[in-house]
Structures are given as structure tokens and as C-alpha cells.
Specification:
Length: about 800
């Protein structure tokens, strides 16, 4: 091998690498730590002389490895073998070899990209012009060294080169590993200059956007088509921010070459370079899960070498983590002006902070669980879960959006009238309550002392078909106190409350007195009816089996008080009228809050009627809470929430438990297991009082018709008053001159009753009620079809005839 060291000491040095002196050096480039081996130097000198010796010994002194080559061929061969960092070529004597040609031949090789080549030239003699180094540079030399055989001069030259260019080149070579990483990265990466000229895109970027890198590199981002689905303000704001050197991340719509819009999670990082200025923007992009998956299939092909597992993680990396951060990619940044306000910046940095918070609300947990499930699910399942997430993110989870039923004015009026609070707010005259100040009338202390006609009627009190209107008639519109005493006695309420029957009677009297007998529907007969239905439901095996005695007591008390002091007007009316109550309860669950609050005030303000007076504090608080919860559950704005929760938590698990037989006597393990879950008991109690409250369409036909007439009359009276007072008419279809009661009942049953009673029947087993409901529905349908318009007022007493 001709390039082997020729010097007597050379063999020793090249074999043992100047042992004791040759050492590795540690260098850092960015966050990367590199270890640099001892420098290798190739001396290309045709003949040994003092100059070549000078370099040789200088290498020795500096701890570099050194080779010497005598001919152009051996020089090239040696270089290709060792890849020296520094090459010194003797340029002094053109007769020995063509130094420029050697330099060019070496430069032409790939490993020479990072090599420093020095030309040793003759000293400029006195009076001679200094020659330009340009021809040398053009030939591929990096430096010129003026002949100087002093070892220290050679040494100085070499170590300056090492600390300067060699070290820089070494760092640059390390960047190749970084580029390799970028090329294989699954996230799309784009690097632009500070003025948004694309400098680099990786293969994942090409695949995501559908472009070849040749079509992108060198282009300004503004030249590429943008998606029009981004918020214009946002782009300005973020542009301003990243230009200030801050990183931005979030969601952004980009347009693929094909024209498709895709939603990406984008992180844009400004990179500071020379002069401490921003020199690049690096954008890292992942697809959001909300993109149409059918359009995303391209992303899974790009790494064909992936194993199954790798592929899995590939798709993971693109699936979104459900962050809904507003964002941008560099494309839009360039196209947007940067005059956004600091207020906007503040707003967006707040959004970023909020997104980084872990709010452990149950809904957050649910969303997180779904997100994790998406990670490992098929595209079909992930798509379905995307839709689930969309729904969960809406606030009104339990309010159905009116679809085709929307077209029916009866339904939309009922829904609007019963389910909305204070939507049509007007400042107007306040509604003045007309209190029912029925004169006290003697009521027996114990129910066993009731007059025979009443006692006789009450014998049938446990039957669903019990006629509450007859009781209303024989009690002179005081059915609540009589039915109440009988029912409460049956359920051992006085024993539970540790109160006398006299106290209970006084309480019923106070409560009944505070119902308005002037209301055609919301009077104490309705309260008695709801109490009757509640007691009936409590007698059902599954209901009884899943509730505790305290729940039964709470349910019966709640039913009794649930509409006390009802003004015969809806919540919407009170809100529109700016009534005292609406103001007091901030237009929210106005009546229901009032019923519960007033009932407790009436009960506790006088010991004579305070049925709670002997309860200990804990019992009282638990009972009070259960009562309030049930009364508030009668608010119709929450109708679908309560029904859906009941179905999801009680009915669905029950149906999947095949051991449960759906019959009245089935006292199964499931029912008892419900007792262990207070939340489930709460759902059952809410559902029970809700069903009891609107059970009138499930009563025998003649009772159902009477109730329909009464509620209609109350609505008509409200419409009359709204018109009179110039208030918004909440339910225009309930105009006494035009209303079709059958239509309104069909709508009410379709929209509120049918599903709810299906669910309640599935739990409590109520075949009798369901039969009535079906019959009644048929009745209204028949009437509607025959366009019978004679059903106007209950006083006409010809409802349904
Ligand atoms: P509450 O005010 O507690 O009795 O709540 C029940 C709601 O259902 C009330 O807004 C009633 O007006 C309404 N409602 C009850 N029965 C009927 C019916 N047969 N037709 C229309 N609305 C009814
Ligand atoms: Zn009611």
C-alpha cells in the first residue's frame, strides 16, 4: 500500500495512532451530543521535505492521525479509504504533480463534501505581487498555506482548521441523522424560511397533502391554495404570535392538492438562527380524527415496511386526542396580515391554557374513554365514536331537536310552552296570584271518621281506575286531604315521621288550601290525582323492591306538594310577564322551585302542621333533599334528561339481564341490587313522580277526557290573558276559538307520554295503564279524523262524546 507512512516513525504512529495523544472530543449541536474521533490528515507530497516533515510532526503534536501519499492515484485511494478531515496538498512544484487536478479529483468524491483541503504554496518573494486565492478556491481548495516548515506554524494552521471548519463540518454531518429522522417520521413536517418559502417537506407531508416535494420546495406558502374553512381572525392572531417567536399549536383546515379540505393538528415552531432572528418556521401536522376517514386511507400506505404493530402506531399518531384548539398552519400565516390585537392574543393563549387543563368532570372522563377506545378501533367504529363525541360536546344532551314533528303546531307549541323558560322575555305587568282562600271546613282528625260517602269512595283508592273527580265532588273540592290521610296511613307515614294524625291532617289542610281551586287543572284535585298515581306505583313490586321506606315517604309528600300555589300559568308565561317569582328564581324552574320552597315554608312555620318536627336532623335533611329533587324533576325542561337517564341506567341494564322476567310479581335480584345504588333510586323516584304527574292520558277514558278538557281550559285562559296583557302568546294553538283538543292530546302523547310510559311500564309493569293509553290515543285519533270540533270546554261536559 503506497500511501503507508514512509517516515521511520510513521509506521509506529499510524499503527498506534500516536497513542497517548490521539483522543476523542465531545461536541454539541443543538440538543445532540457528538463524539469526534481524532482528526485524520492526508499529506500529499511527491517528495519528503522539511515542509512535509513540519506537517507530520505538527499532526503528531496535535494528536491527529496522519497519512502521506506520493502520487495522485495513491492520494485518492487513501482518501477513499480513510475519509480524512484535512488534506494538505503540495502546490509548490507543478513538475511533481498537478495539485489542482488532485484537488478536483478528490472533491469529486462524495466523502469530500466535508473535507478541508489546503494548498501549500510558495512564499511570495520580495517585490512580487500577492496572488489571488480565487483559482485555488475554484479548484476546490479551502485554504492556502504559505510555505513554512516550522512545526509550530504547521501545528497552528492545523488546529485552527480543526476548531473552525472541521468542527463545523462535523456538526453538519450530524444533521444528516436528523434529516433521516425527518424523512422517516410519521408526522408531516414542513420547514419554511422566515419569509415562508418552503425549504423542506418530508415524505409524510407529501402524502398528507398530495404534493411531490419538487412541487413545493422553493415556493411561497401563499402560492398554494388554502382551505376557506378557517377562522380569518385566528390566522392573523397566530401569525402575529409566531412572528414574536412563540410556538402555536391547534387545529387548522388545509387544502390537499386534490382540493379536499382536511383538518389537521398543527404545531408551528419558529426557529431562531443567525443574528438571533427567526430564520425558519417548522410545522408539524397530524390529521384530526374528525376528517372523513375514507379520505385518509392514503396515510396508511406510506410506510409499507411497517409491521402490524408499527402500522397501528402509525394510525395512532394521526388520530386526534380530541383537542379542539384553534390553530393555523404556516400557509395561512403568510397570507394573512399580522395586525391582530393583543386582546385576541390573550384570548387564544387562554384557549390554549384551557385545553391543557385536565378537567376531571364526568363528561371529560367519558370523552377521554371514548378517545382511548378510538385509538384501538376500526375505522367504522372510530367514525361512529366521532359522531358520539360530537353529540356529547353539545350542551343540551337531553333535549331532542324537533324534526318532522316540528311541523305540527300543537307539538311545537306544547314543547315551546312546557319546555322553555323565559325565552320570550318582555317587561310587562306582573302576574298577580289569586290565592285560593277556601274557607276552612271541618275535616275529621282520622280518616276512619270520614263521612260514609267519602269512606265508601276511598275503599276503591288502591285501584288505578279510582275516580278522583267523584272524590272531588263529595269532598267539596278537598280531595287531597281525604285521599292523603287514607294513603299516608296505608304507607305508615305517621309512624315514619313520628307525627300524630292530627299534625298530618293540619298539614294536608294547609297544603290543600294553598292549591288554587280557581285553576281548572292545577288545583288540589290534580295534586290528589298525582298522589294517587304515586301510591299506585309504589305498590308495584319492582318499585317497592327498589326503594326504601324513606323514598316512599318522600315520594308521597312530593306528590302532595308538587304544584302547591300553582298560578294556573306556565313558567314561560311567568318569565315573559316578569313576575315576582320569575325574578326570584332567575327564570329557571320558577314554578317547581316555588312549589318546593313554599311547601317547606308552610310546613315548618307552624308546629301544628309541621310533620317533620320529630325527625332528627339527618333524617330531615335526607328526606327534604329527596322531596325537593322529586318536585324539581316535574319541570318539563328536564323531561328528556330524566327519561333518558332512567332508560340508560335502569331499563337497558335490566333488559340485558336475561334472568329478569318482566312481570308484576317478579321480585328479582336486579331490583334489590338497585337499592345499593342511591343514584339509581333517585332516577326511579324522578321517573315515578314524572309519570304520576302526567298520567292523565293513561287513566280510564272518561277521566282522561276530563283532564284533557281541564288542562286545555287552563291553557286557553293563559292565552286569553296573554292577549289581554299584550304578552307573547306562548302556545298559540291553545286558543279557545280554534284549538283542536284531540290534536293537542295526540301531540302531547306522541311527544311526551308514549316513550316515557313505555319505559316506566318496562320497569313497573303496568299493563292496565298501557291499555288505557292505547285506547285513549285511539279515541283522540278517531275524533281528530272525524274532525270533531265540539271538544272545547270541560263545562260543556261533552268531551269525547
Ligand atoms: P305539572 O305542572 O307539574 O303538572 O307538569 C305537567 C305538565 O304537563 C304541565 O305543564 C301540564 O300542563 C302538562 N300536561 C299534563 N297533562 C297534559 C295533557 N293531557 N295535555 C297537555 N299537557 C298536559
Ligand atoms: Zn303537576
Amino acid at each position: 500500500m503506497r500511501w503507508l507512512p514512509w517516515h521511520p516513525m510513521a509506521y509506529f504512529f499510524s499503527r498506534f495512532f500516536l497513542s497517548g495523544q490521539a483522543s476523542t472530543t465531545e461536541t454539541e449541536i443543538g440538543p445532540m451530543r457528538l463524539t469526534q474521533d481524532p482528526i485524520q490528515v492526508l499529506l500529499i507530497f511527491a517528495k519528503e521535505d522539511k515542509q512535509s516533515d513540519g506537517f507530520w510532526w505538527a499532526c503528531n503534536k496535535a494528536g491527529y492521525r496522519c497519512n502521506i501519499a506520493r502520487t495522485p492515484e495513491s492520494a485518492l485511494e487513501c482518501f477513499l479509504d480513510k475519509h480524512h478531515e484535512i488534506i494538505v496538498i503540495d502546490y509548490r512544484n507543478p513538475r511533481h504533480f498537478d495539485a489542482e487536478a488532485i484537488c478536483r479529483s478528490i472533491r469529486a468524491t462524495k466523502p469530500a463534501e466535508h473535507t478541508v483541503i489546503i494548498a501549500v504554496t510558495l512564499q511570495v518573494s520580495a517585490g512580487q505581487e500577492e496572488a489571488s486565492v480565487l483559482p485555488l478556491l475554484h479548484a476546490g481548495f479551502n485554504r492556502r498555506f504559505l510555505e513554512n516548515n516550522s512545526i509550530i506554524a504547521c501545528y497552528n494552521e492545523l488546529i485552527q482548521i480543526e476548531h473552525g471548519e472541521v468542527r463545523s463540518q462535523f456538526k453538519l454531518r450530524a444533521c444528516n441523522s436528523v434529516f433521516t429522522a425527518l424523512e422517516h417520521c410519521h408526522e408531516a413536517i414542513e420547514i419554511t424560511s422566515e419569509d415562508h418559502i418552503i425549504q423542506y417537506v418530508n415524505p409524510a407531508f407529501e402524502q398528507m397533502m398530495g404534493y411531490q416535494k419538487g412541487e413545493l420546495i422553493g415556493k411561497e406558502l401563499t402560492e398554494l391554495p388554502k382551505s376557506d374553512r378557517n377562522h380569518a381572525d385566528l390566522l392573523d392572531t397566530i401569525n402575529t404570535c409566531i412572528k414574536r417567536g412563540k410556538e402555536w399549536q391547534g387545529v387548522y383546515y388545509a387544502r390537499r392538492k386534490s382540493g379536499d379540505n382536511i383538518q389537521q393538528h398543527v404545531k408551528i415552531t419558529p426557529v431562531t438562527g443567525q443574528g438571533g432572528k427567526i430564520r425558519h418556521f417548522v410545522s408539524i401536522k397530524k390529521l384530526c380524527c374528525s376528517n372523513d376517514r375514507s379520505k385518509q386511507t392514503y396515510r396508511i400506505h406510506h410506510d409499507e415496511k411497517c409491521t402490524g404493530d408499527q402500522f397501528q402506531s402509525d394510525s395512532h399518531s394521526f388520530r386526534c386526542k380530541n383537542r379542539r384548539k384553534e390553530s393555523i398552519d404556516a400557509k395561512s400565516i403568510t397570507s394573512q396580515s399580522s395586525d391582530a390585537t393583543s386582546l385576541q392574543n390573550h384570548r387564544y393563549s387562554s384557549i390554549a391554557r384551557i385545553h391543557s387543563m385536565t378537567i376531571e368532570a364526568p363528561i371529560t372522563k367519558v370523552i377521554n374513554i371514548i378517545n382511548s377506545a378510538q385509538e384501538n378501533s376500526s375505522v367504522t367504529v372510530a367514525e361512529a365514536l366521532d359522531r358520539v363525541l360530537e353529540i356529547l360536546r353539545t350542551t343540551e344532551l337531553y333535549s331532542p331537536q324537533l324534526g318532522s314533528k316540528d311541523d305540527d303546531p300543537h307539538t311545537s307549541d306544547l314543547v315551546g310552552g312546557l319546555m322553555m323558560d323565559g325565552l320570550k322575555k318582555l317587561s310587562g305587568n306582573e302576574y298577580i296570584f289569586s290565592k285560593n282562600m277556601n274557607q276552612n271546613q271541618s275535616v275529621p282528625v282520622t280518616i276512619s271518621d270520614a263521612p260514609p260517602c267519602i269512606a265508601h269512595l276511598l275503599d276503591n283508592e288502591e285501584s288505578w281506575d279510582f275516580n278522583i273527580f267523584e272524590l272531588e265532588a263529595v269532598t267539596n273540592k278537598r280531595p287531597l286531604v281525604y285521599l292523603g290521610l287514607k294513603t299516608f296511613s296505608r304507607f305508615g307515614i305517621c309512624e315514619f315521621l313520628n307525627c300524630s294524625e292530627a299534625t298530618l291532617r293540619a298539614w294536608f289542610q294547609v297544603i290543600e288550601t294553598n292549591y288554587h281551586s280557581s285553576n281548572s287543572y292545577h288545583n288540589s284535585t290534580h295534586a290528589a290525582d298525582v298522589l294517587h298515581a304515586t301510591a299506585f306505583f309504589l305498590g308495584k313490586e319492582r318499585v317497592k323492591g327498589s326503594l326504601d321506606h324513606l323514598d316512599q315517604v318522600a315520594a308521597l309528600i312530593a306528590a302532595t306538594i308538587h304544584d302547591v300555589d300553582h298560578p294556573g300559568r306556565t313558567n314561560s308565561f311567568l318569565c315573559n310577564a316578569g313576575s315576582e317569582l320569575a325574578v326570584l328564581y332567575n327564570d329557571t324552574a320558577v314554578l317547581e322551585s316555588h312549589h318546593a320552597a313554599l311547601a317547606f315554608q308552610l310546613t315548618t312555620k307552624d308546629n301544628k302542621c309541621n310533620i317533620f318536627k320529630n325527625l332528627n336532623r339527618n333524617h330531615y335533611r335526607t328526606l327534604r333533599q329527596a322531596i325537593i329533587d322529586m318536585v324539581l324533576a316535574t319541570e318539563m325542561t328536564k323531561h328528556f334528561e330524566h327519561v333518558n337517564k332512567f332508560v340508560n341506567s335502569i331499563i337497558k341494564p335490566m333488559s340485558s339481564d336475561e334472568s329478569n322476567s318482566n312481570n308484576d310479581s317478579g321480585d328479582c335480584e336486579y331490583t334489590h341490587s338497585l337499592k345499593n345504588f342511591p343514584d339509581n333510586q333517585t332516577l326511579i323516584k324522578r321517573m315515578m313522580i314524572k309519570c304520576a304527574d302526567v298520567a292523565n292520558p293513561c287513566r280510564p277514558l272518561e277521566l282522561c277526557i276530563e283532564w284533557a278538557g281541564r288542562i286545555s281550559e287552563e291553557y286557553f285562559a293563559q292565552t286569553d290573558e296573554e292577549k289581554k296583557q299584550g304578552l307573547p302568546v306562548v302556545m298559540p294553538v291553545f286558543d279557545r276559538n280554534t284549538c283542536s283538543i284531540p290534536k293537542s292530546q295526540i301531540s302531547f302523547i306522541d311527544y311526551f307520554i308514549m316513550d316515557m310510559f313505555d319505559a316506566w311500564d318496562a320497569f313497573a309493569y303496568l299493563p292496565g295503564l298501557m291499555q288505557h293509553l292505547a285506547n285513549n290515543y285511539k279515541h283522540w285519533k278517531k275524533l281528530d279524523e272525524s274532525k270533531c270540533r265540539s271538544l272545547r270546554l270541560p263545562s260543556e261536559n261533552n268531551l269525547g262524546s
